[in-house]
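Predict the 3D structure for this chain.
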Amino acid sequence: MLEIWETAGGAYIANSSPLPADCQNGIEDVRCTVVEPGEHGGDQGAMQFAVMDRFEWTPRAKDMVRKQLKWKLTSEVP
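Done. Predicted structure below.
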């Protein structure tokens, strides 16, 4: 399961965890990454890329952010 939360201060919390049926021996592996605006100079695109790095750019993550969050994951290369 992938989730992205935004705090009142503008930070993103990227959370990934297995579905309950995938938990082994009752242990759930939940992983969270906090992406602070100050870490990326307030650059929204850089923050979004950091979230995607956390999710390892999986097709499921890309689909989620494009369809549900309407993020445009593009970067201009000089």
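The chain has a mean pLDDT of 85.
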